[in-house]
Amino acid sequence: MGKDAIEVQRRTMLQMTVALAGAAQMAAASPAQAAAKAPAATGKPGDFDFLSGHWKIRHRQLKNGAWDAFEGEATVHGLLAGVASVEELRIPSRGFSGMGLRLLDLEKKLWADYWVNAKSGVLVPPPSWGSFVDGVGIWDADDTEGSVPVIYRGVWDQITPSSCRWHQASSRDDGRTWQESWVMHWTRV
Hints:
By secondary structure, this protein is of the alpha+beta class.
């Protein structure tokens, strides 16, 4: 099979994944949950176009109170005229891979961000919801640790044509203070 045929096959598979996830999004999305953090309703097609392409990533992750640094890579495809973005994240040194799936709800003007770990192959609902304001994208997701409510926040910022940053923080006091736990510096290949 030629390189062009493989690329067509890969794009078809990605489009089917996006379609299936869209159905899951509609089934799993709770209006009360989406309104809980009240992200700005500024989402529009093409918001994730900056991420399409091939990337090298420098990771720093907080584990057991110490920062661990490691390298990774990603390939990102924009689909459906900018309404979907599919990221394949790979960390070869850790034998890890996963898929970020971002879908724009055109009516709500909000992006749903899902994760699929390659070890389970399962789309993890509910998504975190967010959008970009002044070049910074913020996505919040509610969770619990034991009986303590936790907000996990993912942020896209420092966006240029050749680089960007994603970082994650968590709050156990309803967003008054944040503990950063993961930083990814992306550099276009």
